[in-house]
Specification:
By secondary structure, this protein is of the alpha/beta class. The protein has helices at residues 39-51, 66-69, 99-117, and strands spanning 2-15, 18-23, 26-32, 55-56, 62-64, 72-77, 122-123, 131-145. The radius of gyration is 15 Å and the shape is globular.
Length: 151
C-alpha cells in the first residue's frame, strides 16, 4: 500500500457536483493498493497514520498526532500512486490492483482507520471521477509505502 498523507485545515471530495465528504482539521489520505498488499499492511499503515506526530503543539512543534488533536480524515482511493514512469511518457498502472482486490482492501483500510480513530472517517467513491479540494496546512505532505516499513 502506498499513501500520500496531507495535513489539512479543510478538505472535501465532490462527485458529480455532490459533496460526498468534508472535514476541517485533519488528514487527507490518498491510498494506492497493489495485489501483494495484505491485511497486515492495512493494520500497520492505519496505525502509523493515526499516530504520526505531524500536528503542532502549543510551542508550534510537530509533536501531536491525529488522535491527539481529535482530528478527522478522508481516505481517497488513488490507483495512480502505483504509476510506473520508467519507459516512455505514458505512465503504466500495471502494479495497481483491479477493483476485485482494491475495493475490499480499500474498505478494510477505512475500517482500520475508523477503529484506530474511534470515529467515522470520510471517503471518496471508489472508481468515480472525483474532485478533491484541500487546504494543505504547512504544507505537510508525507509519502508512506508499506513495502518500505520504517518501524
Amino acid at each position: 500500500m502506498r499513501a500520500v498523507i496531507q495535513r489539512v485545515t479543510k478538505a472535501h471530495v465532490t462527485v458529480e457536483k455532490k459533496r460526498v465528504s468534508e472535514i476541517q482539521e485533519g488528514l487527507l489520505i490518498l491510498l494506492g493498493i497493489e495485489d501483494e498488499d495484505t491485511q497486515e499492511d492495512s493494520v500497520w499503515l492505519s496505525r502509523k497514520i493515526v499516530n504520526l506526530r505531524i500536528f503542532n503543539d502549543e510551542n508550534e512543534v510537530m509533536n501531536k498526532s491525529l488522535q491527539d488533536i481529535g482530528g478527522n480524515a478522508i481516505v481517497v482511493s488513488q490507483f495512480t500512486l502505483h504509476a510506473s514512469t520508467k519507459k516512455g511518457n505514458r505512465p503504466s498502472y500495471i502494479k495497481a490492483s483491479g477493483p476485485e482486490i482494491a475495493i475490499p482492501m480499500y474498505e478494510l483500510f477505512v475500517q482500520h482507520m475508523e477503529k484506530e480513530l474511534g470515529k467515522k472517517i470520510g471517503t471518496g467513491i471508489f472508481g468515480a471521477h472525483m474532485e478533491v479540494a484541500l487546504l494543505n496546512d504547512g504544507p505537510v505532505t508525507i509519502f508512506i509505502d508499506t513495502k518500505n516499513k520504517e518501524l
